[in-house]
Design brief:
The complex is a heterotrimer of chains A (282), B (264) and C (288). Chain B is an all-alpha fold. In chain B, 74% of the residues lie in helices and 0% in strands. The chains are: A alpha/beta (282), B mainly alpha (264), C alpha/beta (288). Chains A and C meet through helix 7, helix 9 and helix 10 of A and helix 6, helix 10 and helix 11 of C.
Amino acid sequence: MIHAENIYFKYYKEYVLKNINFSVKNGEIFGIIGKTGSGKSTLVNILSGLVKPDEGTVFIDGKNIFNKKESGNLLSKKISTVFQHPEKQLFNKCIYDDIAFSMKNQNIPEDIIKKNITEVCKFLNISDDILNSSPFCISGGEKRKCALACALVTKPKILILDEPTSGLDAYTANKFLNYIKEYHNKEKSTIIFTSNSVGNFAYLCDKILILDNGEEKILDKPENIFKKCKELGFSAPNIWQIISIINSKGYNIPEKTSTISEMQENIWKLIKEKEVENKCKI
Amino acid sequence: MQNLTFGKYISGNSSIHKIDPRIKIMASILLFSFIFSAKNLVSLTFVFFALLGTVLLSSIKLSRFLKSLKFILIFTSITSFINLIFEVYTMNKSIFDVKYNIVANSFITLLKLFSLILISSVIMYTTSPAGISAAISSLLSPFKYLGLNTEEIAITITISMRFLPILLSEAKNMILIQKSRGVSIEEKSIILKAKALLFISVPVFVLSLKKAHELAEAMESRCYNVNSQRTKYKILKLKREDLVAIIYIFAIILGVILCNKIKI
Amino acid sequence: MIKVENIIKFKNVSYQKPSFFGVQKSKYILKNINLNIKKGEFVCVMGANGCGKSTLAKHFNGLLLPSQGDVIICGKNTKNDKDNLEIKKNVGMIFQNPESQIVACTVEEEIAFGMENLCFSREKMGKNIKKVLQDVNLAGHEKASTFSLSCGEKQRLAIASVLAMQPKILILDEPTSMLDDKSKGQIFDIILKLNKEKGITIVLITHFINEAVYSDRTVIMNNGSMAAFGDTEDIISDINLLKNNNLVPPESACVLDFLKNKGYNVDSKAFSNESCAEQIFKILGSIK
């Protein structure tokens, strides 16, 4: 379990994060949503153990990650972070070297490195051609997948992603989120996302935290967050918006509907129910 | 690293802020040369207090200057102490003689460095990047006749002022990113430290090339051409206040020359 | 009938990256593009990542020249060197990353940059600066530092600096992709205003379908070729066309298409969430 306690962080005398408190259970998917400049990236750096907060700390399974005696080396904490626009971290001669980079720095033997890379590339559909190419010669979408591979290759227990779909088109973004969902289903790891809009990934989350100007605004389940989206200045997912307009007239489509096919099915059910109702009346 | 703040502009409305940036740059060059040529404690003390007066006129908090001065104080104390040990043990002089000279020399060095830092800080804190770029461009304009493309230099300075903070922040990010991949500049071994620096600087260099390309496209799309004529929106004009500043600077220089003649 | 002229013409345009040292020719990034855009139109270019949208965008103002075919802007061919400046003046371009477009350290200098390149007089520059800041809702921010602006404000500043050059055409390459929802909305309102009130021809490159719905016509790109070019309403309601080109149709269009296939009489072009719900209410209300 990850527990963030009383986190405060100053940047040149201004508070960027104030009084952040939340817990994420093992295996949960946690979303952090906030506009640009609300402190999301700073919070990601703190949760990854890379930057120490001015006050407060982060506990993972009861151990303070900023206390070396309690929690040991950073990488042994099994946290992997995918930063915003992760393509910029790729710089080695070929993608294979970039993916192997963090394992090499941990002095893991070559044969285990090769095994892990083969496994992760199979999972993410990264072809051998791409493994042998230079990171500067492949497309943006592929680069992002490779950056994800760099994070997943160490089989982290906790995966933190800072705006993972920023700059991607809807189709590539959906594919990317699917990989993360599949990884979560397979390894039951804890996942923390950040984003600057509510969007469709919100349906994946067990809990969502909304940050505003470095402060916690709301911490709740996605369905409850969608209701408050308008007053918070975000757009709720379109599926939820359509369903809530229909439900406002007294109908009862389940709010947990999260995919287009579910929505089509539920609307079809609603129409058929009404037809049956009318037939009974006659 | 965060305490070396003497590169940032603080906007304000003091009389120092209002002085033409060309005057400030010329003044700093003149004062630098006179400070280096100052021979005794009296002239240096005079310059230091004159500059302190300028600092007070700029209405910028003294604490900002003190932070960068603290670093120099520590540095000078260490070098003076090393110098003292060196002279006592290798030159076999009497401790009393050595002590007096060492103290006097250290003080002179300290005052020189303090004065240089005060001048640069006052200029940097009170002159906007745009002002500095316009001033350099204006001061270099006579060289146009020698074939120097002063416009290009001005744009280069403007773009550097604009992009240096951005590249610094990218470098800070990259340090964290590579730290998460097991490479840290905080390593004790020099080889590992050097490796870490390489793994940080290569991606940042690539990023800066990419930004440069994007910026070039944006500038070209807005009809920028290195060799074409351009008009200027902001033109620097000397004002009455600038005359007062010129007189003040010459007064300091005169003071230094007179104090140099005083023998202790 | 008044014939509205075509202000932008792409004739069989193909583009491949110039090869180094004449060694091997790289693949074609653009293949046989034919476009005719009328004055005052709002055209959207959509496509998945890597389909050549940005490369196409750079052909509109002559940043890139076609390997084959011609690009004619306001009657002038981009391949003619002497028309280069005239074309760049008429075609303003906004890029995806606001940070990499801003040259100066203050707002007014940034806006003045383009006008200085065109040798405008100082009085004209002063007037234009005030006007464009008003247009992008940044009035009064002349002396602000460009470092202190938010991402959305930076992008609005980029639009203002291009508007100050009084272009007839505006090309926007994914201008909102790095912004949050509120800023996206603000930028988009400005774009619509410029098109409807000032008659500026807009070519918007985006992968956000909810922005594309406001355009007059849409181009769909796939792997460097034009997969479709037609009225936006027709294109967006064609679910299969969008899916085949790696685009995600709007949820409302998917639902309406589903109901249409089940035999119900729905307006498949009711793209907004509210109008989609209205169509569903119509069906439920008509059940008797």
